[in-house]
Amino acid sequence: MIGFYILIGIISLCSWLVSSMLKRKFKKYSKVHLKNGMSGAEIAEKMLNDHGINDVKVISTPGMLTDHYNPQNKTVNLSEGVYNQRNAAAAAVSAHEVGHAVQRARAYQYLEMRSKLVPMVSITSKYSQWMVIGGIAFGAASGNSGIGFYIAIAGLIFMAVGTLFSFVTLPVEYDASNRALAWLEDKHIVTREELAGSKDALKWAARTYLVAALGSLAMLLYWGLRILGSRD
Predict the structure, then answer these.
(1) Pick from 9, 39, 186, 226: CA 20 to 30 A from residue 60's CA?
(2) 121: Cβ–Cβ under 8 A, 6 or more apart, which residues?
(3) Residues paired with 79 in a beta bridge
(4) What are phi and psi of 54, to 5 degrees?
(5) Beta-sheet strand order (sheet of 68-70)
(6) For 7-47, what is each residue's pLDDT tens digit?
């Protein structure tokens, strides 16, 4: 189990470093005020209108970096700072979240795929690690019983679903950022300096998903080697 704790430590450290950098970047670009004076909410509403999306509402949600698009109730949820602020960070985040609404309207294939995986992941993510560890422990306690092995394999399959979800999420997030930045530049919503700040902020936001995906893959490979290796 020492290897497991080392892996967890490495993944946690990478996640913390990227998260800390993201917060610093957003703090930095929150000081780059937009010359057009538009708030995050106003930018989101304009982007929706420019793409002919009239059934999605822009609302404020509590917290910091809690911004998200909810396809169920068709809302773009912007954190209080982003909703009211008029800076490069707010422009980047609000346009990115609307980018997801545009993906939905255009039936973007990876978003559709991720949506189909959500019900499965909501179940598998709760039990995968417990099944893997429990299966290994049960097998060891009962003299490498076949039942324990198959329980661990089932947990491994559950874990693989979560890993697949993490990697499908990557093109969804990168595409939303690309759509956001292209629109901000095309419509002259931001100046060149403001656009550079928006790009940098979204780049670090995307890296949080990359770290999560690589961490999920590392965990899958670790447990896969332990389970299948012990079978040899």
Answers:
(1) 186
(2) 161, 162, 165
(3) 61
(4) -110, -5
(5) 57-61, 75-79, 68-70
(6) 889 889 999 999 999 999 999 999 999 999 999 999 999 99
* Contacts within 8 Å (CB) and 24+ apart, 19-24: 19/208, 21/204, 21/207, 22/65, 22/201, 22/204, 22/205, 22/207, 22/208, 23/65
User: How far is Cα of residue 102 from the mean position of the Cα atoms in its chain?
Assistant: 17
Closest to 154 (Cα-Cα) out of 121, 129, 137: 129
Give residue 81's pLDDT band: very low, low, confident or very high (50, 70, 90): confident
Considering Cα of 102, then 106, then 110, then 115, what sign does the dihedral take?
Answer: positive
CB 114 within 8 A of CB 121: no
Residues in Cβ contact with 6 at an 8 Å cutoff, skipping those fewer than 6 apart: none
User: Could you tell me where the DSSP H helices lie in 106-191?
Assistant: 109-141, 146-186
pTM of the full structure: 0.88
Instruction: Enumerate residues 6+ apart whose C-beta is below 8 A from 145.
Output: 138, 139
Note the pLDDT of residue 6: 86
**Residue 52 carries which DSSP code?**
T
